């Protein structure tokens, strides 16, 4: 189990990271949130004022950027050039811009290289959009997690309520659908289910139910 590699892909707000964290904890392996890496890259681009449509400028910027993921007391912390940006990368500003940044080939190849390095020779649960297809092609288990856009907006709304953010649910659903479209229709590594991935529709399932299903699948694969 210590070297088991699990890839979880799926659209925005399908519950991937919540479930992935639990699965990693139960299996005693590390969790890597690749969306957080694209978000950190986006924050850097916004802070630097680089044109988000300028592929070359973004690639150059990333060669001068240090992105690290480290375990913390309350979950994984994200560091951008040494500064903790864990909360900042969840801001609306970053969320609105991240799909544009993640669509560039140069940005993706840099992130995929880093992700492969992070996963090298160790047990890992990694979530994102292209993990089963590009990053962990040989993963022991691949999961493609989906949920209806209405349900995903409802979950995000509830999460936001706890954080004191009052964005209307209709706006959240529109933003989720827009990101789905951009992530699925982009030329570079669009969001698609890997042929050997297990599809889990979480619309009517609770977080513990989904986590349990994945842990069970992982144990079956390990046997
Ligand atoms: O999972 P998330 O919402 O934090 O991801 C943010 C964005 O990053 C998402 O809209 C698409 C992009 N992304 C990607 O292109 N590839 C990944 N492996 C992870 C995220």
Folded structure, characterized:
The protein has 223 residues and is α/β, with parallel strands linked by helices. The protein has a single domain (5-222), classed as Rossmann fold. It has nine helices and eight strands. It has helices at residues 16-27, 34-48, 55-63, 92-102, 105-119, 131-135, 149-163, 169-185, 207-222, and strands at 5-9, 30-33, 67-72, 75-80, 83-84, 124-128, 141-146, 198-201. A hairpin with a 2-residue loop joins strand 3 (67-72) and strand 4 (75-80). The longest helix is centred in the last third of the chain and has 17 residues, at 169-185. It is globular and about 50 Å long. It starts with a strand and ends with a helix. Bound molecules: 2'-deoxycytidine-5'-monophosphate. Residues 12, 34-35, 38-39, 98-99, 102, 128-131, 179, 183 line the site of 2'-deoxycytidine-5'-monophosphate.
Can you give keywords for this protein?
globular; binds 2'-deoxycytidine-5'-monophosphate; Rossmann fold; 8 strands; 223 residues; 52% helix; five-stranded parallel beta sheet; three-stranded antiparallel beta sheet
Shape: globular
Q: How many DSSP H or I helices?
A: 9
N-end to C-end Cα span: 9 Å
CATH superfamily: P-loop containing nucleotide triphosphate hydrolases
Pattern of helices and strands: EHEHHEEEHHEHEHHEH
Q: Could you say which structural class the secondary elements and strand pairing correspond to?
A: alpha/beta
Helix content: 40-55%
The hetero molecules present are:
2'-deoxycytidine-5'-monophosphate
Tally of discrete structural domains: 1
Task: Tell me how many strands there are.
Answer: 8
CA-atom Rg in angstroms: 17 Å
Reading off the top of the CATH hierarchy, the class is best stated as Alpha Beta
- Percent of sequence in beta strands: 15-25%
Main pleated sheet: 5 strands, parallel
Task: Classify the fold: give the CATH topology.
Answer: Rossmann fold
Mean pLDDT: 94
Strand arrangement, major sheet: 2-6-1-7-8
Spans of at least 5 consecutive residues whose pLDDT stays below 50 are none
């Amino acid at each position: 189990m210590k070297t088991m590699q699990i890839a979880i892909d799926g659209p925005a707000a399908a519950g991937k990271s919540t479930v992935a964290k639990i699965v990693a904890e139960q299996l005693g392996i590390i969790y890597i949130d690749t969306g957080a890496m694209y978000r950190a890259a986006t924050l850097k681009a916004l802070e630097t004022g680089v044109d988000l449509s300028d592929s070359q400028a973004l690639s150059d910027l990333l060669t001068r950027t240090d992105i690290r993921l480290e375990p913390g007391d309350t979950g994984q912390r994200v560091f951008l050039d040494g500064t903790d940006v864990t909360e900042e990368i969840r801001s609306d500003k970053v969320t609105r811009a991240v799909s544009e940044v993640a669509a560039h080939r140069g940005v993706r190849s840099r992130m995929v290289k880093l992700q492969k390095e992070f996963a090298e020779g160790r047990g890992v649960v990694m979530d994102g959009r292209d993990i089963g297809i590009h990053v962990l092609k040989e993963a022991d288990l691949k999961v493609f997690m989906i949920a209806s856009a209405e349900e995903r907006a409802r979950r995000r709304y509830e999460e936001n309520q706890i954080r004191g953010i009052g964005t209307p649910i209709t706006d959240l659903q529109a933003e989720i659908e827009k990101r789905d479209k951009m992530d699925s229709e982009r030329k570079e590594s669009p969001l698609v289910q890997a042929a050997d991935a297990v599809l889990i529709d979480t619309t009517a399932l609770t977080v513990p139910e989904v986590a349990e299903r994945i842990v069970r699948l992982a144990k079956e694969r390990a046997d």
